[in-house]
Amino acid sequence: MPKPKPLIIVESPAKAKTISRFLGSRYQVKASMGHVRDLPKSQFGVDVAKGFEPRYITIRGKGGLVKELKEAAKKTDRVYLATDPDREGEAIAWHLGAALGISPNRAQRIEFHEITKDAVTEAISHARPIDMHLVDAQQARRVLDRVVGYQLSPLLWRKVRPGLSAGRVQSAALKLIVDREREIEAFRPEEYYTVELTADTQPALKASYWAPWGEKGRVSADEANRILAEVRTGDTLRVRSVKTRERRRFPTAPFTTSTLQQEASRRLGFSVKRTMSLAQQLYEGLEVKGEGTVGLVTYIRTDSTRVADVAVADARAFVESTYGSQYWHKGSSRRPEKERPGVQGAHEAIRPTVVARHPDSLKGSLNRDQLRLYRLIWERFVASQMAPMVYDATTIELEGKGHIFRAHGVVVKFAGFTILYKESREEDDQGEDETGEGPLPLLTEGQELLVDAIRSTQHFTEPPPRFTEASLVKILEELGIGRPSTYAPIIDTLLQRDYVHRTQKKLVPTDLGAVVVDLLQKYFPEIVDISFTAAVETRLDRVEEAEVGWRDVLSDFYGPFSEELARADQDIEKVSVPTEETDEMCSACGRPMVVKYGRFGKFLACSGYPECKNTQALVEKTGGVCPKCGADLVVRRSKRGRIFYGCRAYPQCDFVTWWRPTEKTCPRCGSSMALRRKGRHDTLVCLREGCGFEEEAQ
Questions:
Q1: Which of 89, 163, 290, 358 to pair with 567, CA 20 to 30 A apart?
Q2: Residue 432 confidence (pLDDT)
């Protein structure tokens, strides 16, 4: 009788396909399609009186799959639970063991951080029992989120509007966005001036006034006028000092989940949700010409910047053969990195599984966005192992009529890692030595120069910027709110609930979002308190380390929360959300139309209701005009939810474009122009077929 094949259960068919390819017929590999058990959707599912005992049920639609997996498990003496290497994956493995009736001595947990033959076979040789501390950490989060969401959301339905939701992390994130908007609204710009001069050198030396009181050149209008009156064109300047220092700029660490989300947003224009979807595909495996299905990157949910020795060796081989040994780092290649408390040490940073698999070799195998994200991960990792850039930073101080002017210049002596990877401005936090012009003229102390030109420039202080998805992710991680693996669904929920709109990549709170934050702030202050939310997250991390029981965390939270809930249900009156007016007029009676909310989202209704019950679909104008018929161009969504832009006169006019129309008109033909984004480069293009005019967006 043939020996039964060991069964390996993973989470997704893509992962199963990749693993089956290199393990061959010696194993059966099946997919659980994620969780097979969870709390019931239609009931609370948590018995608070019994120590927050959760009641798990088989997820609807998974019964047949569970039966199939159970039958397969009965026919073998070894079952390997190969779910993701984190607490969520550990919980899925535990639920699988319970659902399939696999005894603990037969259910063996294996974990790997990249889907390669070596990693999987190594994991099989080091199978272990399920880690119940990890399971408890996931259970604590799941039950806590159910307690908050299931009990607080219905309160919002009754007091504000049906279909709303509140959550432990979601509500704190919303408060950050609302608070930032109010800070912007309260901001009052202040005028200031800078004074710049040009000296008659070759090349021309540009220097800025340097205020002695530490305002870095910011002066009042009166002060600027006084400087211009005292230092004039043709006056003599004396070189007060010339200081040149050799500096090194070190590469940033390879990506964590959070930094990947941020940089993909900044460089590629991807939403956090899009980034995680593409990264998951790269991790689970894609068809590569000549190789079959292969996992291209390591596990994508990580907060560690650690890199395996074998990956470092692969990077070294590539760098030395491609650029030369001088481009390989000697000793530590990176600036110091602060890792958040609770980082899981077994995890690695996100990196390519095979450094020799250059992005260019995948052009015929991956789609455009998959390749762009892979290239970003690959370049960031290889650059992180390279030598620093070496440059001379020069500061020249000029003195004239008692005033000091400064010029900064940078000359790169050795490109180092920048030959491969140019960091974005947001990543570069290494100080002002790198700012300034290129090479400065060769000057000596005491040398005299003439002022060729001098002028002042008016400026106004600016309010703090609205959050983008990238900057929101950054501050959430810095404050310890939630975990990077949850940021994509959090942002998506805020958008879906209409708490926030995305406008030109900025997250703008709606009146509804502000109303919900104010209500929570008044009656449930801890839910939106940033410090409290971060402290709860830290306690949940301690469950993982077996430093505190998961039921204790829930008990400490639930006591005050349940009291606030009972009090709020009695005290809160029905809250009205300000009506959102529009410039649309009712086609039936001529009165203004207003935005209303229904079970399927927003729509337009006549402000004369109930006398007039006219309604119509809500359209968002872009400011552009159809080049075919002259009607407004509006925002539309495809069946898959992707935004495109079409003529409002559809179906009479079928004009559509993927580029966002603008109010700007083409100087050649007068048609509307649209914004075309390609990476970080924005171009305005004419929408009229055959015109072809385009220009760089300002």
A1: 163
A2: 47
In terms of domains, do 593 and 516 share one? no
- For 316-354, b/e burial (b = at least 16 CB within 10 A) is bebbeeebeeebbbeeebbeeeeebeeebeebbbbbbbb
387-399 residue pLDDT tens: 999 999 999 999 9
Task: Quick: pLDDT tens for 14-24.
Answer: 999 999 999 99
Q: Can you say whether residue 468 is alpha, beta or left, with left for phi > 0 and alpha for psi between -120 and 50 degrees?
A: beta
pLDDT reported for residue 477: 94
DSSP state, residue 386: B
The letter for the amino acid at 408 is: H
575 backbone dihedrals φ, ψ, rounded to 5°: -95, 130
Instruction: Residue count of the chain, please give it.
Output: 698
Angle at 507 between CA 502 and CA 511, to 5 degrees: 90
User: Are 178 and 201 contained in the same domain?
Assistant: no
Cβ atoms 353, 279 nearer than 8 A:
no
Q: Which of 545, 565, 562 minimizes the C-alpha distance to 554?
A: 562
Q: Whole-model pTM? A: 0.82
3-state secondary structure at position 394: strand
Q: Domain check: are 200 and 229 in the same one?
A: yes
Whether 321 and 341 share a structural domain: yes
Place of tokens 């009506």: 579
448 located within any domain: yes
Residues 274, 344 within the same domain: yes
Structure tokens at 674: 């649209």
Note the pLDDT of residue 93: 95
Domain boundary among 384, 417, 445: 384
Is the CA virtual torsion 666, 667, 669, 670 positive or negative?
positive
CB atoms within 10 A of CB 312: 17
Q: Which residues of the chain have pLDDT under 50?
A: 333, 336, 341-345, 431-432
Taking the C-alpha atoms of residue 235 and residue 133, their distance in angstroms, rounded to an integer, is: 75
Question: Which residues is 634 bridged to in the sheet?
Answer: 621, 646
Domain boundary among 426, 460, 494: 460
Instruction: Look up the CATH number of the domain holding residue 71.
Output: 3.40.50.140
Q: Which residues contact 132 (CB under 8 A, 6 or more apart)?
A: 94
243 and 169 together in one domain: no
Give the whole-angstrom CA distance, residue 272 versus residue 280. 12
User: Across the chain, how many H-helices and E-strands are there?
Assistant: 16, 30
How many structural domains are present in the chain? 6
Q: Which helix (H) or strand (E) holds 484?
A: helix 484-496
Predicted local distance difference test score (pLDDT) of residue 340 = 52
Pairwise CA distance, residues 12 & 19, whole Å: 11
Pair of tokens at residue 148: 């908050």
How buried is residue 429: exposed, middle or buried, by Cβ count under 10 Å (0-12/13-18/19+)?
Answer: exposed
Give me the CATH number covering residue 379: 1.10.290.10
Tell me if 568 sits within 8 A of 524, measured CB to CB: yes
Q: Write out the E strands in 553-671.
A: 580-585, 592-598, 601-606, 615-616, 621-625, 632-637, 643-647, 656-657, 660-665
Strands 236-249 and 448-460, by their bridges, are: antiparallel
Active site residues: 299
In a domain, 30, yes or no: yes
Q: Is residue 151 part of a domain?
A: yes
Residues 445/446/452/458 CA torsion (nearest 10 deg): 70
Strand partners, 109: 81, 128
173 lies in some domain: yes
pLDDT at 324: 96
User: For residue 608, what are the domain limits?
Assistant: 580-618
Q: Which two tokens stand for residue 150?
A: 């299931």
Residue 611 shares a structural domain with residue 623: no
**What is the rounded distance in angstroms from the CA atom of residue 80 to the CA atom of residue 8?**
5
